[in-house]
Design a protein that fits this description.
Layout lengths: L2 H5 L1 H21 L8 E8 L3 E9 L7 E3 L5 E11 L2 E9 L9 E4 L1 H4 L3 E6 L5 E6 L5 E2 L7 H18 L1 H13 L3 H23 L7 H21 L1 H4 L2 H19 L12 H32 L5 H36 L3
Parallel strand pairs: 1-7
Antiparallel strand pairs: 1-2, 2-5, 3-6, 4-5, 6-9, 7-8
Helix pairs in contact: 2-11, 4-10, 5-7, 5-10, 5-11, 6-9, 6-10, 7-9, 7-11
């Protein structure tokens, strides 16, 4: 390409357009969310019979599956139904051994990089649950899982979810670039955290419905708007109070996306508090880890002889946010339309 073309306004516009479509292609290859955990629910019945419910996301490329304990066999045919974005299987097992000798596990968790919540209801009315994260994890009905262990398990799930959620991380990156200093950054992050904590709790506890397609589309819109704020300077001209309230509102939208991991697993029982608290703690820890990594990267860029690197990195991040979120907005918009037309739900 000639120097005249490089310096002309038309060629610069073409180059920006090429960059835009290149970043949209990156959005096509980027998975914004890891899938919600699968669920294995077991209910003990008289005569050594166990009723089993298996629920797993349909979108997973590698489908995990429960592994039956040795000596147990399936009774009759399984019943398969579609429930939202997940598929459910129900069938009964007969197990000749005592319940304390059963060993339940799920295969395919390691390969699919997902988790599975195993919930047990004993004949005597007891209830236990355990989060299985790898193929090596297993569950034996013996004693209740303490709240402390549940907090650790769901905190780890929250960390992995936020670090795999590219759309959430891009929005947090936008907050870092929007803030004029540490004090404002703390205020913006706190308002965002407060917003998504509230909506996460409301959906997980069943106070408001979970509408995954609509939630994902709104999250993509929030990332696109953040890119617009940064590129036009609106975020700097808007009052700090108004911007704080707006970021809290965006946090409410992102909390709807976080809730997708727990909404299909929690059933209003005693395990909700520990699961919700642990998952929220994990999200905040993962968010802080990402912020620390970005700030460390910015510090390294500042050590370079020219600050042009820093300005270039800022505009590259804004282009990335705008282009990828535009792709998500179109892609998720089609899915939202499809879900509305097919099922009448969002």
């Amino acid at each position: 390409m000639s120097r005249d073309c490089v310096n002309s306004i038309g060629c610069r516009a073409v180059n920006k357009l090429r960059l835009f479509f290149l970043l949209m292609c990156v959005g096509n290859m980027t998975q914004a969310h890891n899938f919600a955990p699968s669920l294995v629910e077991l209910r003990e019945q008289p005569g050594g019979i166990v009723e089993l419910l298996w629920r797993t996301p349909m979108q997973a490329v590698t489908q995990p599956a429960p592994v039956l304990p040795q000596g147990c066999r399936q009774l009759g045919k399984h019943v398969q139904v579609v429930n939202g974005s997940a598929v459910e299987f129900r069938y009964s097992l007969v197990c000749p051994v005592s319940m304390g000798e059963l060993n339940f596990s799920v295969r395919g968790l390691t390969e699919s990089k997902t988790a599975a919540l195993l919930r047990w209801h004993s004949l005597a009315g007891g209830r236990q649950q355990l989060l299985l994260r790898t193929d090596q994890d297993s569950f034996v009905p013996k004693s209740d899982i303490g709240m402390g262990r549940a907090l650790v398990q769901f905190s780890a799930l929250g960390i992995s979810h936020i670090l795999a959620g590219v759309d959430h991380l891009l929005f947090v990156l936008g907050l870092l670039m929007l803030a004029s200093g540490i004090r404002q950054l703390v205020i913006l992050i706190t308002s965002f955290t407060l917003g998504h904590s509230i909506s996460l709790a409301l959906v997980s506890l069943g106070f408001i419905p979970y509408m995954p397609s609509l939630a994902e589309w709104l999250i993509a819109l929030s990332v696109l708007l953040m890119a617009g704020f940064l590129s036009t300077g609106v975020g700097q001209t808007k009052s700090r109070v108004g911007m704080t309230v707006l970021i809290a509102g965006f946090g409410l939208l992102h909390g709807l996306g976080f809730a997708g991991v727990l909404s299909e697993l929690l059933d209003g029982s005693s395990g909700v508090v520990s699961a919700l608290l642990g998952f929220n703690i994990g999200i905040e820890l993962g968010q802080l880890m990402f912020i620390a990594a970005v700030m460390a990267g910015v510090w390294l860029l500042r050590q370079l002889p020219s600050l042009r690197w820093l300005a270039g990195a800022r505009w590259a991040a804004i282009y990335l946010m705008g282009s990828v979120s535009m792709y998500w907005l179109l892609d998720r918009g089609l899915k939202l339309l499809e879900a509305t037309l097919d099922y009448g739900v969002y």
